[in-house]
Amino acid sequence: MQEDRLTNTANDPTLLQLEKISKQFPGVSALYKVDFDLREGEVHVLFGENGAGKSTLINIVAGALRPTSGKIVFRGRKMHFPNVHSARKIGIHAVFQEFSLIPQLTVTQNLFLGVEKGRYGFLDKKKMHQQAQEILDRLGFELDPRKKIVYLTRAEQQMVEIAKVFGSDLSVLILDEPTASLTEKETERLFALIEQARNDNVGIIYITHRMGEIRRISDRITILRDGNYIATVKTDGVTDSELVELMTGRVIDQIFPTIHYHPKDTILSVRNLTTADNSVKNVSLEFKRGEIVGMAGLVGSGKSKAMRACFGIEEIKSGEIIFEDKKFTHAAPAKMLDVGMFYVPPDRRNEGLVMMRNVRENISLAALPLFNLSMYSMFLKRKNEKVMALDLSQRLNLQPPKIERSVDLFSGGNQQKALLARVLTRKTKLYIFDEPTVGVDVGTRAAIYEFIADLCQEGAAVVLISSDLPEILHLTNRAYVFYRGDLRAELSGEEITEQNVLFHFFEQKAA
User: What's the CATH code, domain 267-340+428-506?
Assistant: First the structure.
């Protein structure tokens, strides 16, 4: 890490300043002369559509990327970060949207990775475990430090990532969509930790697409669009609609579409379902064509496991899955695809997409056995595959519209579009969307809502599994609410209110 001393006035609250930062990738300008500053003890939100340059900017601050041009100034000194370690040495730590944990190591080993405690030339495992437990207790995270990461839920892995940075000396904290996998209780704890950090004069760069979070914790907002700096505004001086207009360059009158539901015959019946791991217990559900049914509940409530069991991903202990009056209780996912059920997983990187392959191949993946793409199930009809992928990518407005480009080079929102395009490659009667808008911007979110509404109005059955309560309230005509593997309530129409749904999220205590 190299540094040059610059003039710095006394009592200057500016902690970090980025001046005219540009970043060029082959054939792509990710950032162009972007200015940004962070003050001590403030939460400064980076706001923009997927692909606006937010991730590139925080990667530069964290030392994961080097700018093509521009200047980074930290506490009055010009800095050059050749790697992440050099940024961490002065207290700049990041929690990225994509985790950096080692799955086969324990929570303790991940917390002390690279800063292991030793004694007489050997690892002091007892001391590391004790300190890991102290960190988790201080943060209020109920985790077993001896448990391997591979056995943790995504929400628990998020807590480990957060614990890694809050167990360090902080000057700048970068949080990229940190609440995407957290329950309401865990989110509240994170906000308390953020408040504590700002009281210690830590500067916090925060990325989120959730307006409620922006209003609650931020002081200022910097908006990026297409890699360019647009504006920096005070949080209390701008409306939500003004923010969206600054972000997109256009007015989005209504995020949630008006949906006309026409429930018809029952297409899927779930009778007394219990999964092998007891994450779902004796649950009965039904889904009709022409409606959107919400699956609500906290992380780990069973709302996702129930539908994964229907699709053949989770092992079933007892119960029945009846699709179009035929039993498919122990059918494999390939069979459920063939009969007309499609499940879109919440983790697009690990479950949904093949990240090192191009968009064309990712879109066509589920349709490869079909006659229009293969001959005798042996030879791929590449021309048909290309035409189909190009048509679907245009329908979902993939940006940039390059279907031969590796999917891992696209923003999160455009990766999600590629994943959603896949559901249109087959004749599908029931769509299951599991957290379809995690980590996507407001503009992409509105497009996904419109996409889901169109499927419903075309007569398909749609299941929406979501931890985002407004999605349940505004998109569904019926909703099932889960609590610790049990079906707590079924709500419909005007019964689907915030108060009614939240009432069933938590344990009901006897009066």
Answer: 3.40.50.300
